[in-house]
Design brief:
heterotrimer, A alpha+beta, B mainly alpha, C mainly alpha, A: alpha+beta, Rieske Iron-sulfur Protein, 14 strands, extended, C: mainly alpha, Cytochrome Bc1 Complex, Chain D, domain 2, two-stranded antiparallel ribbon, 12 helices, 2 strands, about 55% helix
Chain lengths: ~350, ~550, ~270
């Protein structure tokens, strides 16, 4: 990256180098020889307000009017805040039925602020001087003598510290400084428990009944019709439980019934009960609750990233970013005639992870 | 006043000084404000609308902080489950976290609370959109060149931090939509090889959703991220003052000056006024347009979802990445490599870094070590402009992917077809955009070239005595000629001689070769139209006399 | 009268006239025939079925087969029940303009009386869900909040939080539920039209369905209050982002142009 790599003559020198070297003001002289030369700042022209006092007075009145509008709007804001009930709805064409308070407060606040801004800008544009001023720039880089002084100071300081000479101090200091942040890293360990095998298990277990999410009743095979869609959770789960959110995040089940002849995957048929199949509702991509079931095709689509699974074929992925099929829960009918799980899911539900295997 | 003869009378004159001056004197004795004001009070700012884009960002940032502080007075960052008993009937009796409940309280019971919430959220969307446009302005005009590379990086960091501050804020109400986004985050973390499950468990304090993430996001959203951003904003502004603003080429405007209006009074009024204008516009928008109506979405439940689950716009491109990625999953010695999620997760920063590192690539190719304060017109740097448009195309293609379901329903298309379109356009789109943009730039350069040499087409048709019709061309003024020829043109770098002055063979490194090739691509004959020389101009204009 | 005369050339006019004539005959017959009441009812029922069958063979048989057994162009209608007919024909989805996975709704071309006849005929082919009575779908007194939770569990995944509709695979979509008759919503849940799964009473009870209808009316009705203002289609962040860019940033840039523009100069004489 050093500058030697590019020969100087390749840099676009002519025009800008010329400008660099020219004194400010020198360029302003129109050049007979160079028609492209910088003619310098154009002469200042007056606005109407600069030469006509009546126009200036008009601008003054406009600015004052804007500031007055702002004051009135603020008063209106206060009045609206005090007077309008928080739950009052009004119909505003073409917006619709909206909160009267929100609309009134927003409009008055907006007008009050906008008027201040518009007044200030109008004032600046019409009454303040509009003469353009040229300001000199100065190089950001320090002049060589400053640089030399700083480097010398640094060398002096470094020498006086003896850091370079006393290697033992230097090395141990670096060691100490490098190690101490580890304490901070260790403290972060308290953020959460180790994953263990938690992602591999759900609440489902042998004999757990499938409870309808809508009615909170256990399901019978006759409840589930072909072409219908039912969501279930394991018995014993209650919305009010402390762990409900955590459990339902893995337990949620989607139940459909497919004519046994239409099921292409033999294992799926075996794990079903007379064509009633129970799949995890949690997408294997990144865990959205998947349930856009198209009953004619038996495809189920994820609303988040459009992974599509074929529920008639072991819920394998037929489109989208998911990497593997939805896990199926093996179900049967218990002695009392209700659908129940044969065991927990055989594989982890939800998104894939490193230890999934 | 400051001459030696006056020092004796100084104390007496101070007593008579107006109150304002006395306060200033007091402050100067302790803070040295006069020296500070000397170089800054009449600081010059050039007038151009595109130079106000950064101010839109600054002011919306201030608005976000002001409204955000108000919201913290009412928001409870807790995930304890409570039953809703507020005035909104369609949620009464529903279980929800305290975070959701308090957001409902702000929206329906606190007077003006809904307005402040909406201002906060609208300002956030506009803040990010403003930063995006501001960044593009800086990019296409080459304002990132020396000495402003560091400020470009500060700005870039602000954009990225803004994205994450936005994301954490969007997740705080713990509603069904944002909860789905947080779950996506869990899935994305799980996909990280080796440490993924640990990352997820540490973020959520155990299994998803746990009871911690709202509180953790809250401290990041209100303290950690905005704290860093505030520091960066201050540094960004100090550098703007220190470098002085860039300006477009024009009569009287050189690389050594800055032409415009002084901070006091014109820009104090304009910039100060603009703050109120921005605040006013956002307030009115918040009065008429609803944003993030969490009451419609309901509280988060991991087993519920709605179609059209999208993040706010600034995260949309990452959503596009994740939606169009094929579902690759590899079994790796008993471990799962979740490429379908992990690759998008890695491409996400890559998309951003691609634009962030560009200034350094360009300065390496040009080898230019000089300061640049005159802005480029995008047409005069076709390769850079091409890259910029290609990047925007890339970003937009991904945004389309992120909203593919809404594209499908609103334009009667198939989601699968859109996904395939995005998969292909991800690779093809930027290339096409690059080529097309470069062509357009060259065309515009040719037009400038003709305008300089032959003048402006007036549209007046004249018939010459011998019957020929010609269009009268009006020669440009010197101002225009100067403006159109003020830009610099680089000559492609060449690989130096294979032998040095002493006749010793020099090793030509691969880096040098790459750079020579890039430089040729940038500044070779195919990439810029050589601007007219004075000689060419004189020859043609003298010839013009005949007409 | 004008309307009537305009419609007399309608292809179905003949059928309507026939129906009226038959109905009149029927009424006259029952009035004058001193027969048993039950027999008369049965006769009326048979007549309705007969009429339905005639309508069916004109409008439906080409796709669904002469006896409702289904063809390659349309599914079998045996056992779909009256509710399915009332939904499909009542929302204008049937008769379809062209067969396909997604048949959109359009203006209804049959009168309710004709729909009832068609429904009676289809019911006679095989038992299925009956058309709900108003008692069943009237949402009065239902639990709106409970309906909201049920909606988010069962419906929102396809129809969006407040029933604005959404995309399905391969160009199919779940339609918007805005302005849909509660009866039709009830029937859709009951019968599962097209690719929508059904939610029979065994999994989504009658009470549940009422709650859902009540919720929809509360959040997607004509008088629904959107406290914050424009709902921007109720589609979430995509439309919000678009609005923020176009109207938010757009307005601010317009303002910026004004702030930075040079003030007009006095004209030179």
């Amino acid at each position: 990256m050093s500058s030697q790599e590019i020969p100087e003559e390749n840099l676009p020198a002519e025009q800008s180098a010329g400008l660099d070297q020219q004194e400010h003001g020198a360029v302003k002289v129109a050049d007979e020889k160079n028609p492209f030369a910088d003619p310098g700042l154009p002469p200042h022209e007056h606005r109407i307000q600069d030469i006509d006092e009546r126009a200036a007075r008009r601008s003054e009145r406009t600015v004052a009017l804007l500031f007055t509008v702002s004051m009135l709007s603020t008063i209106a804001f206060i009045a609206a805040y005090l007077a309008i009930p928080v739950d009052k709805a009004i119909y505003v064409f073409p917006i619709g039925h909206i909160s009267a308070l929100n609309f009134a407060l927003g409009c008055t606040l907006g007008l009050a602020l906008f008027s201040i801004g518009a007044g200030a800008v109008h004032w600046a544009r019409t009454l303040m001087s509009d003469e353009e001023i040229a300001d000199e720039r100065h190089a950001i880089e320090a002049p060589p003598e400053v640089k030399a002084k700083v480097l010398a100071d640094f060398k002096q300081g470094a020498k006086e510290s003896a850091l370079g000479r006393r290697k033992l101090i230097r090395n141990t200091m670096f060691g100490a400084l490098a190690l101490f942040p580890l304490s901070g890293v260790m403290l972060l360990g308290g953020l959460g428990p180790a994953p263990g095998t938690k992602l591999r298990h759900t609440t489902w277990a042998k004999g757990k009944k499938l409870v309808n999410m809508n009615t909170n009743e256990p399901l019978r095979p006759s409840d589930v019709a072909v072409g219908s869609l039912t969501f279930a959770m394991p018995e014993g789960l209650d919305e009010h439980d402390h762990d409900f959110q955590k459990n339902i995040a893995k337990d949620a089940l989607m139940i459909v019934r497919i004519q046994p002849d239409d099921i292409k995957d033999p294992r799926e048929l075996e794990w079903s009960h007379e064509g009633i199949v129970a799949f995890s509702k949690i997408c294997t991509h990144v865990g959205c609750p998947i349930s856009l079931y198209e009953q004619q095709t038996h495809h189920v689509l994820c609303p988040c990233h459009q992974s599509t699974f074929d529920l008639a074929d072991g819920a394998r992925v037929i489109f989208g970013p998911a990497g593997h099929a939805l896990p199926q829960l093996r179900i049967t009918v218990g002695e009392d005639g209700y659908l129940e799980a044969v065991s927990d899911f055989e594989e982890p539900v939800g998104p894939a992870f490193w230890e999934r295997g | 006043m400051s001459t030696a003869t006056n020092t004796a009378t100084d104390s007496r004159s101070r007593e008579k000084a107006p109150a304002g001056e006395r306060v200033a004197d007091w402050a100067d004795g302790r803070l040295g404000i006069y020296s500070l004001a000397k170089s800054n009070m009449r600081k010059i700012f050039p007038d151009h609308w595109s130079f106000m884009l950064g101010e839109i960002c600054l002011y919306s940032f201030i608005i976000i902080i002001l409204t955000g502080v108000y919201l913290t007075l009412f928001f409870h960052p807790s995930m304890n489950e409570v039953e809703y008993h507020g005035p909104y009937v369609p949620l009464q009796g529903q279980l929800m976290s305290e975070a959701f409940n308090s957001t409902m309280h702000i929206s329906f019971e606190v007077r003006g609370g809904l307005l402040i919430r909406q201002i906060h959220h609208w300002a956030a969307l506009i803040f990010l959109a403003g930063m995006f446009v501001h960044m593009m302005r800086v990019f296409f005009t080459g304002a990132f060149r020396k000495p402003r590379e560091v400020n470009w990086l500060f700005g870039f960091l602000l954009f990225v931090l803004g994205m994450f501050t936005g994301f954490t804020g969007y997740s705080l109400p713990d509603d069904l939509l944002s909860g789905t986004g947080v779950r996506f985050m869990e899935g994305a973390l799980l996909s990280v090889p080796i440490v993924g499950t640990y990352l997820s468990f540490f973020l959520f304090g155990g299994e998803f959703p746990g009871g911690d993430f709202v509180a953790r996001f809250y401290s990041a959203h209100v303290l950690l991220l905005p704290g860093i951003m505030l520091g960066l904003v201050v540094a960004h502004l100090i550098l703007v003052f220190y470098h002085k603003h860039t300006q477009f080429a024009g009569p009287g405007k050189t690389n050594n000056n800055v032409v415009g209006m002084p901070l006091l009074p014109v820009y104090t009024a304009k910039a100060g006024g603009f703050f109120f204008l921005v605040f006013g516009v956002i307030s009115v928008i918040s009065a008429i347009a609803s944003i993030n109506p969490i009451w419609s979405m309901g509280p988060y439940r991991p087993d519920q979802v709605s179609t059209g689950a999208q993040p706010d716009w600034y995260m949309g491109f990452s959503e596009g990445l994740i939606r169009v990625m094929p579902g690759w999953e590899i079994d790796f010695w008993g471990h799962t490599l979740v490429l379908g999620v992990f690759i998008p997760l890695m491409v996400f920063p890559l998309v951003l870094v691609a634009i962030a590192v560009y200034p350094f690539i360009e300065s390496w190719v040009t080898g230019d070590k000089r300061e640049h304060h005159i802005l480029d017109r995008p047409r005069n740097v076709p390769t850079r402009t091409g890259f910029g448009v290609a990047w925007i195309t890339w970003y937009m293609v991904l945004l389309i992917g992120g909203g593919n379901d809404l594209w499908a329903t609103h334009f009667h298309l198939s989601i699968n077809a859109i996904t395939w379109f995005v998969r292909i356009a991800f690779f093809v789109g930027p290339v096409v955009a690059f080529i097309v943009t470069k062509r357009i730039c060259l065309g515009l350069q040719r037009r400038d070239h003709d305008k300089i040499l032959h003048g402006r087409e007036t549209g007046i048709i004249k018939r010459l005595p011998h019957g020929e019709f010609i269009e009268v061309h009006e020669p440009l003024s010197q101002e225009q000629l100067h403006t159109l020829t003020a830009h610099e043109q680089y000559v492609p770098a060449e690989i130096g001689a294979a032998v040095d002055e002493n006749g010793v063979a020099r090793k030509v490194t691969r880096r040098e070769k790459v750079r020579a090739k890039l430089s040729k691509g940038y500044y070779g004959g195919d990439s810029q139209i050589v601007k007219p020389t004075v000689e060419e101009y004189k020859e043609i204009t003298s010839g013009h006399g005949h007409h | 009268m004008k309307k009537l005369s305009a419609r007399r050339r309608h292809p179905l006019a003949a059928l309507v006239v026939l129906f009226i004539a038959l109905a009149t005959t029927g009424v006259l017959f029952t009035a004058f025939a001193p027969a048993d009441r039950a027999v008369a009812d049965e006769t009326a029922q048979t007549l309705t079925i007969e009429e339905g069958k005639k309508l069916y063979s004109v409008g439906c048989a080409s796709c669904h087969g002469t006896g409702g057994q289904g063809t390659t162009d349309g599914p079998s209608l045996v056992g779909v029940g009256a509710a399915a007919v009332d939904f499909q024909v009542g929302t204008g989805r049937m008769p379809a303009q062209q067969p396909g996975a997604q048949v959109p709704d359009k203006p209804t071309i049959y009168s309710q009386a004709e729909i009832d006849q068609l429904a009676a005929y289809i019911s006679s082919l095989g038992a299925g869900p009956e058309v709900p009575t108003e008692n069943e779908y009237n949402p009065e007194g239902a639990d709106i909040a409970e309906g909201g939770e049920l909606f988010r569990t069962n419906c929102a995944q396809c129809h969006n939080f407040t029933g604005k509709g959404g995309a399905l695979s391969e160009g199919k979509y779940a339609p918007s539920l805005e302005g849909v008759d509660p009866k039709h919503i009830y029937e859709a849940m009951q019968t599962g039209p097209q690719n929508m799964p059904s939610f029979p009473d065994t999994t989504l009870s009658e009470e549940n369905k009422k709650d859902i209808i009540a919720y929809l009316e509360a959040v997607n009705g004509d008088d629904t209050v959107e406290p914050g203002g424009l709902s921007l289609g109720g589609l979430g962040p995509v439309s919000e982002g678009l609005f923020g860019w176009v109207f938010g940033l757009g307005a601010l840039i317009a303002v910026a142009v004004w702030v930075a523009a040079r003030t007009a100069k006095a004209k030179k004489s």
